[in-house]
Structures are given as structure tokens and as C-alpha cells.
């Protein structure tokens, strides 16, 4: 039980508690208030309600999901390759790779902990790179700390080959490269954007097929920034088909049956972290991606 000091008179409840509980963030305290983990003189108040000093406050702290260790979950994984040092997964669209806001369970990390319990001893369960929730395709996981360190160094040296198939809006006339820095969007903080203050990002693309008002391309990454291909293609006027974040509403409406960004990680190549042998894997796009291509091809015949 705590008492609101007179010095806090006239402040909002969350402000007064932030001063009393400096070890916790304001957003955490606001969550406790909203979830009725805080009483003031025995009553639940709102975040913006004022206090006047002398009130008796009781706080029942709630552990944040991010502070709870991830648990193994029996989620099927499409394993393309596995040995004692690494495994390669063909991730389906819709599966979140790592727990985060709104997705604390049911992720690929939870599935990995069930498949290989020893991954509990490797940071991030061996995950060294990510794919967006609605991007399908290949992703490598290290099974030991040594292998993870090696793979991270390969990624930093840009020697890991990552190749994607993508369907973009508009007619892309020829092969090209986007070399544009990517960082947080200046006003929409959940989005990324091409910004001068961002981190270096380079995407190479090759035209594979023209599909009427759309283009099938192959993208090869030099760097691995968040949403890199999606942001880079939007920046040159060719947002991905189905992209709910970087595409326009009219573009989404044009192909309403395709429910995600048309992006598939089709090829992955790297040096084995133990033997040093070059390994490479390739997987075809999933059924929804293939159905999209079939639909677009039928429209132009």
C-alpha cells in the first residue's frame, strides 16, 4: 500500500504512479491501470483521472508477456534440412517467427523449442534472421551457440544468399537495384520507410515475367533490413501485390482474394558453420502464391 504525496496533487493517476514507481515505465503502469491492477482508496480509476494527495494506492504488478520465458508448443514445422548444427525451415505465411506484441504464443520460436528442446540454451532459440509474418519461405536456424555466432558473422559479411520471388504492381521494364537507406517512418512508427537517417539497404531485382499490369520479379538482398523488399519496391512505385501496409487500398481491392504480400523466400545459400561446405536450398512458392500467378496468367491469355 502506498500513499499519493501532496506534491502530486492535480496530476493524472499514471503520472503520480510513475513518480512513485520509477523502476517501471509509464506504459507499463498505464496497462496495470487499464487492467484493474491498481486501486485508489479501494476503487478502480482511469489513467487520466486526477489525484489530489493522501489517497491510498494498492498496485498488483502484472508480469509482462515479454518477461515470461517462451514455452515449447507442438506446432508443425516444414523442415527442409537438419543436422547437429543447423536446420532450415520452409515457413508458411501467417506464422510469426519470434514472440512480440500481440503474438506471445504460437510462433516459430515456440515450435522450435518443441522440436529441438536444446534450443532453449541458444539465444532466440537459434533464430538469426526473420521473415515477416505473411512472407513464406526459407529461414535458417542455428542449433548451437557456435553455429549461431558463425551464421551471424556470415550475415554481417553479406555472404548469405537470400533470394525471393515477388509479384509487384505495375510494369517493371528492366532489371535494377534499389540502394536506399531504410529506417522508421517519421510519423507512422510501426512502418519503415526510405529515410536519409536510416541504415544502408540494397536490393537487386530481376524481371522474370510480365503479367499484364503486374510483374513477377526475383529479389536478392545484400542487406536484411525490416520490410526491406516491401519498402524498396514501394519507393520505386511498384508495391507488392496484397501488401496491407505499403500498398494502396485500391491496389488491395484489385486482387481481393490474395490476402497477404506476394513475397516468398525461395532460395537460401550459406557456408555450413562447422564443415565450411557451401549449401543451398530452394523451395517453390506455396499454393496461394502459385494460384495468384495462375490467375494473372489467365487474365492475359
TrEMBL record:
Domain RNA-binding S4: 11-43
Keyword Lipid metabolism: no
Species classification: Bacteria, Pseudomonadati, Pseudomonadota, Betaproteobacteria, Nitrosomonadales
Any GO BP annotation: enzyme-directed rRNA pseudouridine synthesis
Domain of life per record: Bacteria
Protein name: Pseudouridine synthase
Family from the record: Belongs to the pseudouridine synthase RluA family.
CDD domains: PseudoU_synth_RluA_like, S4
Catalytic EC class: isomerase
Entry-linked PROSITE patterns: PSI_RLU (PS01129), S4 (PS50889)
Domain Pseudouridine synthase RsuA/RluA-like: from-to ranges: 86-235
Amino acid at each position: 500500500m502506498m500513499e499519493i504525496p501532496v506534491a502530486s496533487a492535480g496530476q493524472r493517476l499514471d503520472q503520480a504512479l510513475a513518480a512513485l514507481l520509477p523502476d517501471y515505465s509509464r506504459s507499463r503502469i498505464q496497462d496495470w491501470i487499464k487492467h484493474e491492477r491498481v486501486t485508489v482508496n479501494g476503487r478502480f480509476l482511469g489513467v487520466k483521472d486526477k489525484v489530489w494527495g493522501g489517497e491510498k494506492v494498492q498496485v498488483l504488478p502484472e508480469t509482462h508477456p515479454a518477461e515470461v520465458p517462451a514455452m515449447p508448443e507442438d506446432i508443425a514445422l516444414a523442415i527442409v534440412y537438419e543436422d547437429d548444427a543447423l536446420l532450415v525451415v520452409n515457413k508458411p505465411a501467417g506464422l510469426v517467427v519470434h514472440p512480440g506484441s500481440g503474438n506471445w504464443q504460437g510462433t516459430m520460436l515456440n515450435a522450435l523449442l518443441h522440436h529441438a528442446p536444446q534450443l532453449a540454451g541458444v539465444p532466440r532459440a537459434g533464430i538469426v534472421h526473420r521473415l515477416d509474418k505473411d512472407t513464406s519461405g526459407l529461414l535458417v536456424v542455428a542449433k548451437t551457440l557456435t553455429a549461431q555466432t558463425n551464421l551471424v558473422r556470415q550475415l554481417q559479411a553479406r555472404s548469405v544468399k537470400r533470394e525471393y520471388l515477388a509479384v509487384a504492381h505495375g510494369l517493371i521494364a528492366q532489371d535494377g537495384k534499389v540502394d536506399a537507406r531504410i529506417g522508421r517512418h517519421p510519423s507512422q512508427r510501426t512502418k519503415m520507410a526510405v529515410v536519409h537517417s536510416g541504415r544502408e539497404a540494397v536490393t537487386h531485382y530481376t524481371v522474370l515475367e510480365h503479367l499484364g499490369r503486374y510483374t513477377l520479379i526475383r529479389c536478392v538482398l545484400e542487406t536484411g533490413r525490416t520490410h526491406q523488399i516491401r519498402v524498396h519496391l514501394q519507393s520505386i512505385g511498384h508495391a507488392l501485390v496484397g501488401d496491407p501496409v505499403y500498398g494502396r487500398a485500391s491496389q488491395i481491392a484489385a486482387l481481393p482474394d490474395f490476402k497477404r504480400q506476394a513475397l516468398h523466400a525461395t532460395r537460401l545459400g550459406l557456408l555450413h558453420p562447422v564443415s565450411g561446405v557451401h549449401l543451398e536450398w530452394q523451395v517453390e512458392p506455396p499454393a496461394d502464391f502459385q494460384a495468384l500467378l495462375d490467375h494473372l496468367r489467365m487474365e492475359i491469355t
